[in-house]
Design brief:
The structure holds 2 protein chains of 2 kinds. By secondary structure, chain A is an alpha+beta fold. Chain A has helices at residues 2-20, 52-61, 109-120, 157-160, 175-181, 183-188, 233-242, 256-260, 292-300, 304-311, 341-350, 375-388, 400-407, 428-436, 448-457, 463-480, and strands at residues 30-37, 66-68, 75-77, 80-87, 90-95, 135-142, 145-150, 162-163, 196-202, 206-211, 222-229, 247-248, 265-270, 277-281, 316-319, 362-367, 393-398, 415-419, 486-489, 491-496, 499-500, 515-516. The chains are: A alpha+beta, B mainly alpha.
Chain lengths: 517, 306
């Protein structure tokens, strides 16, 4: 009798076990991955941040209405199942049903309206507001249908509603939770719909994430993710050598050989970074730099292929313009730049500045502190090459804040290094606006024709027309030479072989599909 | 030690802090604008102006300063621009980590440097003395960024004995403490040695020895107490420095201390955080100075409190 009862208990227990694993559901998440990054986030509220550490956490914990396919870089359904345009300024999104936030709150039209209005509210002081001011209002049609109405045609709206994103992107937030707990509580205890949820934030040290077991897609395989801030590069390298970290970001190029010697670790890099730094020439001050021949001459003095091979040790690639070839509207017909010092000298003398005579010393501003991979070395190379034309360059390096202020000054400098792009900017028009449109706070280029093409393109919703306009703008940007020849740099990671993970784009760390061997 | 002396000292301390607050308030505003750094690179000019207004940076400087002082007196140091939470919360969290590291480094320093200094003075020109001096020179000339990285490479990467970085357990504390105290150990050991050497030659020590007092009593009670004055000063000041946070050591070992916070805040032009940290550190310095003065009087009652 006793044995029968115990057998019965065993049978019941096994039934319970089996039923807890629903058909098609993956195994229970297990294991832990530690990611060593250069900086710690200042807030975990992605709507309130313009910084990479915050967004890398958000990319694993928050989602928006559309997803970016990280292989084709096109759109995929996300928290909405589909969308269509009712007219040029009204977008209708059909929301996915049954999605819950980490706290159990339902995702629905209220959440969409709340999340977008929160970014738009001037009192909120969201750094993402500026990129979304064209949004007029959000109308709830039914609990799972919303209409987003824009003031003017806003083709960029789909970009703003696509995750994984960056500043400007609008992630979906739980309205009840945020209203009840307040912004400050939310910033430290964020709640999204993503595959991971934040369970512990030790400020200045680490952020711990745990697999979201109620996730609407397949539950992630790894149970715990720790984002650990290790500011010092050599310590970060030590961390992966000792196994204290499984993945480290921002590997300095000179540490790669040391890391490669350990057979348990591999180097993984994204082929191109989303943030290509370029050097822009100030055309707004008149003088020699206002002459297109002088600008072309400067470009011809630069051998970007050499820069990539020698200075970047191959961790980058040459580009005709500082644009990502995978972004919407990239003109594939543009040829790569070829250096030609003799032609440069001839152009310069044609313009009346033979051997650099009459060209004042050029002031070149660029950021220090490793903001751009080998940025300081590239600046020195540029100065050296201009010397060959008889043009002197004054290198003016600045700490981030000082440099940023200087870049907004359109009157005082001749050359400036800056990078645009990042995960949320997958449209060349978006990038070119900041680089070259005269209305951009950072552009040192003032060309009515270029402005006109871009203005038209940014309000055309038909993709083919936009593409054609963008292509034209790119040809103009090469002819007018307001930028020096461009290159893109790689993001370099080191990964322990016990971890299955690869970087997908630039500095993004997406861990949904990561696994342990 | 009179009460009026203490009261006067407190008034001086208060004046010092007010002057410091004025200096830091205007200095940090001269270096640039936090709004540019808070907003994304592509923020429009309207956005920048609006946020600047909302943070109150458009108001006259004097009005901003008055606002800062009035709320600081009520214990409200404002909200961090970068972290978007009360400055006091941001800072106190880091103080604990810094306090832990500073105290450990100070304890180790005193525990090693004082005996080493005394012994080498007593055994002047002996092998122990020479060895101590060599270690002192090496310790003083090793920069902490080099020592820290070397310790990590040897102890953590090569021997796998201790974690390379991090905060929390005793094991995490050892390497940063060693890195931080190497310089202070060297400095204070040398100071102790030279102080003791000078005192040991003086007449009253010979008298004490002639009286037949036990050697330990002569060394510790008579000699060390007199040699101790400059040591107390240096230890006081160094401890103040340590409490202000140690940027390099904290950065190398990813230690969540005050120094790193201060530097990050300066880069972000996070005015409220910079102001609060500088005020806090100044207050610590001022109080330590007070303590040193009192200790002086206690060690050598001949010193007048003025």
């Amino acid at each position: 009798m006793a044995s029968f009862r115990s057998r019965l208990v065993a049978v019941v227990a096994s039934v319970v076990l089996v039923s807890s694993v629903a058909p098609g559901q993956a195994a229970e998440p297990a294991g832990r991955i530690v990611v060593g990054t250069a900086a710690d986030p200042e807030t975990l509220d992605p709507q309130m941040s313009a910084s990479l550490p915050t967004w890398n956490i958000a990319r694993n914990t928050f989602e928006s209405l559309l997803f970016r396919d990280m292989k084709t870089f096109g759109y995929r359904p996300g928290l909405s199942e589909s969308y269509r345009m009712l007219n040029d300024t009204t977008w209708q999104f059909k929301l996915r049903r049954g999605v819950k936030f980490h706290n159990g709150e339902d995702f629905n039209a209220d959440a969409v309206k709340f999340s977008i209005e929160r970014v738009l509210n001037p009192e909120q002081k969201s750094p993402s507001r500026g990129l979304n001011v064209l949004i007029d209002r959000v109308e709830i049609v039914d609990p799972y249908t919303v209409n987003i109405v824009t003031k003017k045609p806003m083709p960029m709206l789909s970009e703003r509603l696509t995750s994984p994103g960056f500043t400007g992107t609008i992630p979906m937030l739980p309205p009840k939770y945020v209203r009840e707990k307040g912004d400050q509580h939310f910033a430290a205890n964020p709640v999204g719909t993503g595959p991971y949820r934040v369970i512990k934030w030790s400020k200045g040290e680490s952020v711990e994430l745990e697999a979201n077991r109620g996730y609407w897609r397949a539950v992630p395989k790894v149970k715990t993710i720790v984002f650990q801030a290790i500011p010092e590069a050599s310590t970060r390298v030590s961390a992966i050598l000792t196994g204290q970290a499984d993945i480290i970001a921002s590997v300095p190029p000179d540490a790669i050989d040391t890391i490669k010697r350990d057979e348990n670790i591999r180097i993984a890099e994204t082929d191109v970074d989303g943030m290509p730094p370029h050097v822009q020439i100030n055309t707004m001050r008149g003088g020699p730099l206002g002459d297109v021949r002088v600008r072309q001459a400067l470009g011809l003095a630069i051998d970007m292929d050499l820069v990539v091979k020698r200075l970047l040790r191959g961790h980058g690639v040459q580009r005709p313009l500082p644009l990502d070839p995978r972004a919407f509207g990239f003109n594939p017909k543009l040829a790569l730049h070829k250096p030609d010092l003799d032609r440069a000298k001839k152009l310069l003398s044609d313009a009346g500045y033979a051997n650099g005579q009459g060209v004042p010393e050029l002031v070149f501003i660029f950021p220090t502190g490793g903001r751009y991979l080998m940025g300081e070395a590239v600046a020195e190379y540029v100065a050296q090459q201009f010397g060959k034309l008889g043009i002197r360059v004054k290198l003016n390096p600045g700490e981030y804040g000082a440099w940023l202020t200087a870049m907004r000054d359109k009157k005082s400098y001749d050359l400036g290094m800056i990078g645009w792009g990042g995960g949320g900017r997958f449209d060349v028009g978006d990038t070119m606006f900041f680089q070259l449109h005269s209305q951009s706070p950072f552009s040192w280029f003032d060309n009515k024709e270029f402005d006109g093409i871009l203005d038209r393109a940014r309000e055309v919703t038909d993709p083919e027309t936009r593409k054609a306009l963008y292509a034209k703008a790119q040809v103009l940007a090469i002819d007018q030479a307001p930028l020096l020849p461009a290159h893109q740099t790689n993001s370099i990671f080191a990964v322990r072989r016990s971890v299955v993970w690869n970087p997908s784009l630039g500095e993004m760390v997406l861990l949904y599909e990561a696994d342990r061997k | 030690m009179t009460t009026s002396w203490l009261v006067r000292r407190f008034v001086y301390a208060g004046i010092t802090l007010v002057v410091i607050s004025m200096i830091v308030f205007s200095l940090v505003r001269m270096t640039g604008d936090p709004v540019l750094l808070f907003l994304p690179q592509d923020a429009s000019q309207e956005d920048i102006n609006r946020v600047r207004r909302q943070f109150g940076f458009e108001d006259p400087l004097l009005q901003q300063y008055r606002r800062f002082v009035l709320s600081a007196l009520r214990g409200d140091f404002g909200v961090s621009i970068k972290f978007q939470e009360p400055v006091l919360d941001v800072v106190t969290r880091r103080v604990a980590a810094t306090l832990q590291l500073a105290s450990a480094a100070m304890l180790l320093t005193l525990g090693v440097a004082l005996p080493a200094g005394i012994v080498s003075a007593l055994r002047h020109n002996s092998t122990i003395d020479r060895l101590t001096m060599i270690i002192v020179v090496v310790g003083q000339s090793m920069p902490s960024y080099w020592l820290g990285v070397m310790l990590i490479l040897l102890v953590s990467v090569q021997w796998r004995l201790l974690p390379a970085f991090g905060y929390g357990t005793l094991a995490h504390l050892i390497l940063p403490t060693l890195t931080l105290s190497a310089f202070f150990i060297a400095r204070i050991a040398r100071l102790t040695r030279s102080g003791m050497l000078a005192v040991l030659k003086s007449d009253y020590i010979r008298t004490a020895e002639a009286k037949g007092l036990p050697a330990t009593s002569v060394v510790l009670k008579h000699a060390f107490k007199n040699a101790g004055l400059p040591i107390v000063t240096i230890v006081g000041i160094e401890f103040g420095t340590l409490l202000g946070g140690t940027v390099i050591t904290e950065t190398i070992f990813a230690w969540p201390g005050l120094g790193r916070l201060a530097v990050d805040a300066i880069y972000a032009r996070d005015y409220p955080v910079v102001q609060t940290i500088v005020l806090l550190v100044s207050a610590v310095f001022v109080s330590l100075n007070l303590v040193v003065d009192v200790l002086y009087h206690w060690i050598d009652p001949r010193i007048e409190l003025a």
